[in-house]
Amino acid sequence: MRMDHQLAERWIAPQSHVLDLGCGNGELLAHLQQKLGVTGYGLEIDEDKINEAISKGLSIVEQDLNDGLARFADDSFDTVVMARALQAVKAPDVLLLDMLRVAREAVITFPNFAHWQNRIHLGLKGLMPVSEALPYEWYNTPNIHLCTFKDFEQLCAEHDIHIINRFAVSDSEKGHSPLMTSLIRQAPNLLADVAIYRVTKRKPA
Amino acid sequence: MNARSDSTSDQLPTDTLDPQGLADQAGSVGIVTPEKIHFAEPLTLECNRTLPSFDLMVETYGTLNQDKSNAILICHALSGSHHAAGYYSHDDKKAGWWDNMIGPNKAIDTNQFYVVCVNNIGSCFGSTGPTTINPDTLDQADGSEPQVYGPDFPLITIKDWVKTQALLSDRLGIDVWHAIVGGSMGGMQALQWSVDYPDRLKRCVIIASTPKLSAQNIAFNEVARQSILSDPDFKDGRYIQAGTYPRRGLILARMVGHITYLTDDAMKAKFGRDLKSGKFMYGYDVEFQVESYLRYQGERFSKNFDANTYLLMTKALDYFDPTRDYANYANTADDIAIDDSLATSINNEHTGSDHTAEHSDDTDSQLELSALKSALAHTKCQYLVVSFTTDWRFAPERSQEIVDALMATGKPVSYINVDAPHGHDSFLFDIPRYMGAIKGFLTAPFMTTNMAGTGERS
Known about the structure:
By secondary structure, chain A is α/β, with parallel strands linked by helices. Chain A has 8 helices and 7 strands. Helices cover about 35% and strands about 20% of the residues of chain A. A 7-stranded mixed beta sheet of chain A has the order 3-2-1-4-5-7-6, sandwiched between helices. Helices cover about 30% and strands about 10% of the residues of chain B. Classes of the chains: A alpha/beta, B alpha/beta.
């Protein structure tokens, strides 16, 4: 299972009701359902992934995230999860606020554009970054709104969004070594390639 | 009456579709034989009339397992029948109307499931309906001949059909259906099942359907009905006794219905503006290919279908509203009073009022969502809802109303909106993605249906 999925799981309460935006083949949702007794829905747009998720017995609804979450009432869910889709939607700020309208908390993961490899690509080579976390060329990437950890936190501050937890990880093997983990903790915006945030609009208790 | 019908239409060529689809690797259920099942007990209908007894024509495919847990019920659409799959003989060239869906290794796999398809009452393919002898006319003191029901057959609702299907389930010893599946009007029956008998089905598949008809849907149905009712050969529905047949009315009704099953693009691709003879004839005979096609379809349909049945079926569509029984739906002004027979409704046809209340979109859709939520609140099955992008008869938005109401009440539901060019008729086509989703849904592990979420969670 993907690293960010494992982390997302820590922040989702057992038996809670979850909406998974861009749920793919339902890997995370199935895992949460089996391990934590979580219920909920996945939204996805990829036809093959939807069918794969349906055949797992999951509740998957075909929907383009760019159409927003208007179909869901306020506070319909405990948690909304969105793994690596924020950077691919047309209006990430609007969607983020909509997520925090339909759920108390949001768990969001996205690739860090300020990762050192990306900086090298752009800063030294003068090329748009291509990496493990961002495997596309500039002309075919679905990632139209890439941001850095700092950018995301600035957006949160502007909209009174409270960051409950954040975790920066490196998806590659070396990221798992204790030295690398501690280095990432020192300089996440430089060394981590994926960020996981747990945010809310509510005042912390 | 010829039992070889199709659901909405079967006219588009299937040979161009799904070259690599399931149909190629999958087989046919082979030769099938329908069975007529008699129900001797009286059946009280929603309109408060009672049928003293009734018959259902049924076909089954596959084998019922020991604990009777592998049964799937197929509900047919407006002009459909019990003949959903297979052939009646070795010379039979035309398979059942959903043969691409049902069979060994197909989406509804008869190696795994026991599939039951029933012709609904009021239809004209062997189940009790307007062409059946009216028992009230038997053994008359004056020695007169027994007569068919004709326009005296009661108006039937979707809910009535579901009730007869539940009685059939009892007869077959099936307490709980593995799934109930239907397209278009068949999807309405599947939805109604989940509301009326929540403990009797585990999965519900609603395809190209709607939670209720729109004003535009009803308008098209009304044009179809008026075509039949205004045919001089209709004879107030007693055409069989009069020795006539409202052929022209039925042809027109089918033509207008057929247009709503297709799309502008599909018609353009198939006919364009092609002329039969290649030039204008400056007359009203068939000139454009599309005219020829529609007339042919209408003609063919008129030979296989009963006019009173067509009227009754369109009325059942118009009346469909699974929220009717659920209290906090405060739309009483628009509540439908069900006439108690085709004859009454025919006689009342000119007394319709001109009353048109203004409807605010937002309030109406909010009311409808909350009504649908109350109807669906106590359901216990898992749902799969399927719509088709080009379907404008029951557009994807209508399917999404069902999905939204289910999600708002925390019910397990999956939804796909299949990109297909064939409009409403798409549900009869072998589209790999569509078939794959049905197959996956029917064979998936059964997850809990008790979702925590019911809206407010603060």
